[in-house]
Every structure is written in structure tokens, then in C-alpha cells.
Amino acid sequence: MKDAVLRAVKKAKETSKPRNFTQSMEMSINLQGLDMKKTQNRIKEDFVLPNGRGKDVKIGVFASGDLALRAKKENLSVFDQEDIEKFAKDKKLAKKIANTHDFFIAQTDFMTLVGKSLGPIFAPRGKTPSPLPPTASLEPILNKLKKTVKIKSTNHPVIHMLVGSEKMEDELLAENISEIIKFFEKKFEKGFDNIKSIYIKTSMGPAVKLEDFK
Description:
GO terms for molecular function: rRNA binding; structural constituent of ribosome; tRNA binding. By secondary structure, the chain is of the alpha/beta class. It folds into 2 domains: about 1-55 and about 145-210, Ribulose 1,5 Bisphosphate Carboxylase/Oxygenase, CATH 3.30.190.20; about 60-145, CATH 3.40.50.790. It contains 7 helices and 10 strands. The strands form 3 sheets. It has a 4-stranded antiparallel β-sheet with strand order 8-1-9-10, covered by helices on one side. The protein has a 4-stranded parallel β-sheet with strand order 4-3-5-6. Helix 3 crosses helix 4. The radius of gyration is 19 Å and the shape is globular.
């Protein structure tokens, strides 16, 4: 499988026109023999890519005191209680904050307030914050989030996901993709028989079919 994935990655890059920005590398998996409306077939996963996303992620932190200071030193967006209350009153601003950040972290004693004030906006977007005790180190959770992609199914039998960026080495992208395919193979009752086809592409380029994924 790995050689086939590597060939597809190379072809996806070669057939993609140059852009004035770094494109993401994406994968689409078409499913078969599954009713995606059934709860047992739904997927909502924070998947840690072995070689990371290949691009910076924007992380927001709801915190105060020492944790807020440490987050600012990491150049993260920091929001305090006053900000949360402001976002709760301004839904348009809250949506903008949610849409312009990849992930959020919340000091544990902020979780209830964030959930009550911003849950209806953040949760449907998959942006519910990860809780962090005020005295905990930021490094482990930041390292994890920088490598994490969200895999979420809908009622339709196709799932789209980020697998890296076009600037990543082909071999590293191939490993990311291979690990995601293994995840899906284990996730479904019939394994590969529930996967109809897989396509790989840059964000603006044509889709390249993965010929052999088993």
C-alpha cells in the first residue's frame, strides 16, 4: 500500500498548478455498505498525524493568570472571562473567532463558562476546547494539537480530511495517509470492504485516485 500511496502523492503534486500560497494536501474516502445516518457508523475523531500537518496551526486559549501569561509567551491567542462574555453577546464575533482558529484550550475552571456561552457556536464546528489545569504545562498539549487533524463524517458516504501540506516530503505525507487508512480499516466492521475508493489532492488541484489501498 505504501508504494501506491507514495505514487499518488507524487502525482497529486505534479498535476497541481503552482499557487502563491502553500496548499494543503487532502484525502477523500468514499465508503460503501454503510448507513452513515446510523450512530455506530459515524466518525468524530481527533487524529494525530505521525509527521504533523506541515503547516502552522492557530490555537486559542481561554485562561487567566499564570496560564494566560505562558500562553502569550507561546504567541497563542488568549481570551479572558471578559472576552468570553463579549463573544456571548456578539454571535458574529464569536463565529469569527471560532472559524479563524484551528483548536482551543480552556483553563479547567473556564470550561463551564465557555460551554454555556460559546458551546452552541463552537461545538457544531468541532471547536470545543480541550481542558487544561491552570498549573499544567502547555508543551504536551500544544505538541499534540500541532499534529492533530479532525476527521468527521456526515450523513453522506464520503469523508474529507487534511493529511499535510504540499511542502512536506512525499514520504512523510505517504506515512500520514497510510496511518489514516489503517485507522479506517480498523474502524469499520468489514474493513477495506467498506472503502469504495480513496482520492488524494492538493487543496486547489485535481483529485488523484489511489489505485491500491489494501
